[in-house]
Every structure is written in C-alpha cells, then in structure tokens.
Specification:
eight-stranded mixed sheet
Length: 394
C-alpha cells in the first residue's frame, strides 16, 4: 500500500475500456498490444515491474478489486487508462464507461472516477503516476472544460495525458497519445515523463480528433515525509510550523508503513490517538475525525479483522449522514459499500448476526450502486439461520 523500499519493483496497470456497440467513441483496447510490447520497467521507471492488463472489463466491482490489489503493492505504481468518460446523470460525476455501459445504466455499469481517486489516497505521495488517453461525450466534455479541477486526484499523484472532445458521427477515435508513448519506449528511448508527455502530445495532436484536447501535465511537489521506521509520538504536539513538527500529513504515511510491515497494533494505536486528537480539536463529527475513523477501518482490514473494519466503516458512514451528506454522496456510498464488503468476509455467524441490524439499516438508507445489495445481505443472513439461532428481523 505504501512504498517502504526505494528499490522496490514497480507495478503497471493497463486499463482499456469502452462500451460495446453504437456508444463506443474510442478504440480503447487498440493500444494494448503496443503497450504490452514495451518492457514493463519502462512503464514504471524501475528496473523490474509487474504488468496487469484489463481489457474491456464488464463489472466495476471487479475493476475496483484489481485496483485495490495494485494499490497495495510496494514500489512505484503507474496506471495507464484509456477509454471514454460520461457523466452520471444523477450526480453529474465522471465515470469511465465499461464494456456494458449505457447512459441509462452508467451508475451501475461505469467505474466512477472518484473510486480511483479514493483508492490512491492510500499511496504515499510521489509514488503514483496516472496516465490517461480518454474521449468524452459532449455533456462530459463541457463539464470538464469548465471544471476548475477536472479529473482531480489526491495530493502527490502525478497526472499526465489528455481528454479529447467527442468525435463526429460514425467516427471512432484511436488512443494516439498512448500509442505515441509506446512507440517512443519501443525505440529504446527513456525520456523523463514530462518530456515523453510533450512528445506524445505533439504527435497525437496531429492525428484525427487530437486537436483541442484537454491536456494534463501535473507533477505535484511532494512534502517531505516523516521518518517511517517508528511512529515516535502519534499524538501531535502544540501547533508549529509544518517544517518542524510531526503533523497529520506526516503521520499517515508512517502509520500505513507500520501496518504494511506487520506492526498492526502499533498502527491502530497511532491512528486511534490521531482520531482522538481530531475529535478534541475539530469536534466529534468533523471531517478530520471521520477521516481518521476511515483510516482505522482500513487498518483493521489490513490486519485481517473484518468485524472491526465493518464496525468502523459503519461508524464513518453514519457520521457523514449526520453531517447532512446525502445518501448518494460518493463518500457515504463508499463507506457503506466497504462495510458491506467486510461483513461478507466474516466467517463467524454470531459476529455477522450482531453486526447485521446496523448494516441492514444503513443499506436501506444507502442502497449503493450495486442493485440488490440489501437482498444479497439478507439472503446470506438467512443461510446462517440454522447455525446461529433465531433469524434477525428483515
């Protein structure tokens, strides 16, 4: 999840997706042979690398599972994403359209961009690069063109690439930007990413549909990191300049590194101390306090404690609802979905039954993007009925 060795091998995820049929704007998978022919280390800037390829995936949850796996890998991470963007008509949030996506079902068949951004928050700043070659439909293009932070990612994630406007009727674009990158790499050249980007943009702009693209070249400065080997003092000292104190920004990478190293109790205790500090400083229902609750939930998942992780994700979801965040707010949905996912991992019927009433109540409030999630939860509960006593009320 975080890098703890500078010489760690890298990981590259190639994700190419576009709807089948008339809705396809770009031949996303057409670039995969060119990228697959590039030495994996060129994709990550490391001597060795693991390559993961997803071609026209169908299920957003399956893509999220693969994304979480590569996010958890040590070493530099590079995501190469090609496809097309559409807005969810309900929330007007950008989604990567997968193979079965259609405008009426995008909420369930597309991959929300904020899912990608949310998973990358767990990476140490400066260790992750996202390279995109995307097309957008007319509505999404207008939205991105007027957004102050289109395709925003978390601090410390480099974003390079382009989004092109929709092509004319009966025209399917090619991912020429990424094809240009692949051609440069296959020639044996290994320019810095900023130089590679400039060359690829120049070449792809001359191709059909490449003119007038929205271009990204964000290489964010990274704040100095606190020493990782030990957490020293998780409770923050009196406020001082960020350069001479151990702040929350410094603490999170160290806590995650401790968990990655197997020091789960140490990491959990430190996160709990920061949560208490956030409650005392900003209030029990503050976003700062909720953030640390969510950190604790993910630490419990890493420690193999799905019951505690489920409890904490439900606590975070309820806290967000009490802040008047809407039921379809991405952060609310994400917290409930993660709580449900951890509940599904429970093997002890008694624990599952104890957590089920709260989870069912949340699922009724927050159905989420996966149709029938509440029914799936209730059916599993019924299967445990004979081994765990009387059934819970539905």
């Amino acid at each position: 999840m975080v890098i703890d060795r500078e010489d760690a091998a890298g990981t590259a995820l190639l994700l190419a997706a576009a709807p089948m049929g008339k809705g396809r704007l770009i031949d996303a998978v057409g670039v995969l042979p060119a990228l697959a022919a590039v030495p994996p280390g060129a994709l990550t800037g490391t001597a060795a690398a693991t390559l993961v390829e997803l071609a026209d995936p169908l299920d957003p949850q399956a893509v999220l599972t693969r994304l979480r796996a590569v996010v958890a890998a040590p070493g530099p991470l590079s995501l190469y994403i090609t496809g097309q963007l559409h807005l969810d008509p309900r929330q007007r949030l950008p989604h990567l359209a997968l193979a079965r996506a259609a405008p009426s079902t995008l909420r369930y068949t597309g991959l929300p961009w904020h899912w990608i951004a949310g998973e990358l928050k767990l990476r140490r700043p400066g260790t992750t690069t996202v390279v995109v070659d995307l097309a957008a439909d007319e509505q999404t293009w207008q939205h991105l063109a007027t957004d102050r932070a289109p395709l925003a990612l978390c601090h410390g994630v480099r974003l390079y690439g382009r989004v092109v406007p929709p092509p004319g009727r009966r025209t399917i674009l090619a991912p020429d930007y990424l094809k240009a990158c692949a051609a440069i790499w296959r020639s044996g050249a290994r320019p810095p990413l900023s130089d590679l980007h400039a060359q690829a943009i120049a070449q792809s702009s001359a191709q059909p549909g490449g003119h007038g693209a929205l271009v990204f070249a964000t290489d964010l400065p990274v704040a100095p990191q606190a020493p990782v080997p030990s957490l020293v003092s998780p409770v923050p000292p009196a406020p001082a300049a960020p350069t001479d104190t151990y702040t929350a920004t410094d603490a999170l990478p160290a806590i995650l590194a401790a968990a990655q190293a197997g020091r789960h109790e140490e990491a959990a205790a430190a996160a709990a101390a920061w949560e208490r500090h956030a409650r005392q400083t900003h209030g029990p229902g503050s976003l700062q306090a909720i953030h640390w609750t969510e950190v604790r939930a993910d630490l419990a998942r890493l420690a193999g404690d799905p019951a505690e992780s489920c409890r904490l994700w439900m606590t975070a979801a309820q806290a967000r609802l009490e802040r008047q965040q809407t039921r379809d707010d991405p952060d609310v949905e994400g917290a409930v979905d993660r709580a449900h996912h951890q509940w599904e991992r429970l093997n002890d019927p008694e624990t599952a039954r104890a957590l089920a009433p709260s989870l069912i109540a949340l699922r009724r409030l927050v159905p989420g993007r996966q149709r029938g999630a509440l029914q799936v939860l209730q059916r599993r509960l019924e299967r445990w009925h004979d081994t765990a006593g009387p059934a819970l009320p539905a």
